[in-house]
Amino acid sequence: MMLTTSNKAIDKQQLADLYHFYKDKNEEKYLTQILDYYAKLKQDMIHICFSGHFSAGKSTLINHLMKENLLPQSPIPTSANIVEIKQGIEQVLVHFNHQEAIKMKTLPPLEQLHQLCRDGDQVKKIEIYKNMEDLPAGVTLMDTPGIDAVNDADRLITESALHQVDVLFYVMDYNHVQSEVNATFLKEIDSMHKPYYVIINQMDKHDESEISFTAFQESLETVFRQWNIQPKRVFYTSMLMSRMELMNLLLFKRV
Questions:
Q1: What is the dihedral of CA 209, 212, 213, 215, to 10 degrees?
Q2: Which domain range does residue 18 map to?
Q3: Cβ-count burial of 52 within 10 angstroms (0-12 exposed, 13-18 middle, 19+ buried)?
Q4: Residue 28 and residue 52 in one domain
């Protein structure tokens, strides 16, 4: 079970009542979620989450959109914790699993920052604040660990942050669109009634001589029908696309 709410459905007093209810029951998990949601309401923050299959290119996509290499990117799985990117005075907050959080007043060298993003054993969440022209104030971009069939811990880390999410982009690698792991996760998102979009990334792998694009689309739609998965829209992307093409596609053509 996960606490799921929306800005319009609950106010601060209701959150306070929920907090005391779960505190009496010693439900630490829900207490953390309620405090997260209280901070979200107080800051009037919108959370846009990028999740998806491991090595599908989530981190690379965010870096490309923001014109910043803030997130590690590699053919092998990279981000191992929740990373939040926010507009603001440059600083980094590192939240650990078993010790107090620390605050860095400036961004550390990128290699050090990337290492923190890879350290899922010690680091629970990283908040990166930076003045970026394309990230509006009041918007948080979230990068989550890649989801696969082997590492259940990464999936649990991702699920632990979903209560804050307003809109989710789920990124799939072109070669894994029929993965049961993807379908299972999207089915869960459907059950939470959160708006989400599917991004089929790395479309440069597509070979029209092997399968037509129309046939590829139809095979994906068949999987979605079988699982009763209903994203608001499906996008087809490649890092060979220009940044402006991606911005126009994902941010301005979502309806």
A1: -150
A2: 1-44
A3: buried
A4: no
By the 8 A CB rule, do 80 and 119 touch?
yes
Residue 236 shares a structural domain with residue 137: yes
Residue 107 DSSP symbol: P
Residue 111: CB atoms within 10 A of its CB come to 8
Same domain? 142 vs 54: yes
Query: How many residues in the chain?
Result: 255
Phi, psi of 91 (to 5 degrees): -170, 165
Query: Sign of the CA dihedral 100, 106, 107, 112?
Result: negative
Instruction: Answer yes or no: do 205 and 177 share one domain.
Output: yes
Query: Residues 43, 138: contact at Cβ < 8 Å?
Result: yes
Residues 146 and 211 in one domain: yes
Q: Quick one: 100 and 9 in the same domain? A: no
Q: Is the pLDDT of residue 254 over 50?
A: no
Whole-number mean pLDDT of the chain? Answer: 84
CA pair distance 47, 164, nearest whole angstrom: 7
DSSP classification of residue 198: E
Say if residue 217 is in the same domain as residue 150.
Answer: yes
Total domains present in the chain: 2
Give phi and psi for 198, each to the nearest 5: -105, 135
- The CA distance from 72 to 111, in Å, is 8
Q: pTM of the full predicted structure? A: 0.80
How distant, in Å, are the alpha carbons of 100, 177, 201 from that of 149? 32, 14, 19
